[in-house]
Specification:
252 residues, alpha/beta, 5-stranded antiparallel beta sheet, 35% helix, elongated
């Protein structure tokens, strides 16, 4: 399935390398043109109507996110290409979007392009994910929203509304304070890594990651059992008990 694309990066060498990788390993991607900054990219997109853009985040005269904000609706898919930027990468992960780290690895490139091919017809899905990215870039803490796939659409979950994550083999079930349940293809370890900076979330045992604001009560003995506001109970592993008790002593 052919995909028409534009490369947006202020570094000529980066555009050249990515173009050669696409030609060799992703022949279905047809490069319509290139751009070196936000204004040029905006003009190229309106002129050439690509289905996909490879977008560098750090560029002079405005970053890649400022380009996306120029569009009321985004009629193309985006694969971000970036050097290390923890804040930007965190926002991208929460929004379930794809990114490539420089220097680009062939396997990562092929995986990202394959995902675009698979969701090529789902315009609503794309727009919601990119809108959520903008929200996450401007938000902090529990104001951030997590993007989860729900059938052929996307659900945007506020971190504050998530009660707990529970592992199910290589997948994860996400339960909200409103007693909703969503299934994610990400494993629990990926969510634990994403939420590590947020002290409100604690992995209480091998199979469960809990929002401590959803805890109604807990026992101090052995075993240590927590009860959530919804009535669910979980056992704290011995390895996590001390961390849990210290976390619970801290003011909200």
């Amino acid at each position: 399935m052919e995909i028409k694309a534009i490369l947006i990066d202020d570094e000529a060498d980066s555009r050249s390398v990515l173009g050669k990788l696409l030609a060799s390993f992703c022949p279905d991607v047809k490069i319509l043109g290139e751009a070196t900054n936000v204004e040029q990219a905006y003009e190229k997109i309106n002129e050439l109507k690509p289905e996909l853009i490879f977008l560098d985040i750090q560029m002079p005269g405005g970053d890649g996110f400022s380009l996306l904000k120029k569009f009321k609706e985004i009629p193309f898919d985006v694969i971000f290409v970036t050097s290390y930027d923890q804040y930007a990468i965190e926002a991208i992960k929460f929004s379930a979007l794809d990114y490539l780290m420089k220097p680009v690895e062939v396997s990562d490139l092929q995986t990202a392009v394959k995902k675009v091919q698979e969701k090529k017809a789902k315009k609503e899905l794309r727009n919601q994910q990119l809108q959520n990215l903008t929200h996450n870039l401007e938000s902090s803490g529990l104001e951030k929203r997590l993007t989860v796939h729900y059938g052929d659409s996307v659900k945007l979950l506020s971190l504050a509304d998530i009660a707990y994550f529970e592992a199910e083999r290589n997948y994860t079930n996400i339960f909200t304070t409103k007693k909703e349940k969503f299934n994610s293809s990400k494993n629990l370890g990926e969510y634990a890594e994403m939420l590590e900076p947020y002290t409100e979330f604690l992995r209480v045992n091998k199979g469960c990651l809990v929002n401590i604001n959803s805890i109604n009560s807990y026992s101090k003995g052995e075993p240590c059992i927590i009860t959530l506001n919804g009535g669910q109970t979980f056992e704290i592993s011995r390895r996590k008990k001390q961390e849990f008790l210290e976390r619970m002593k801290k003011p909200a």
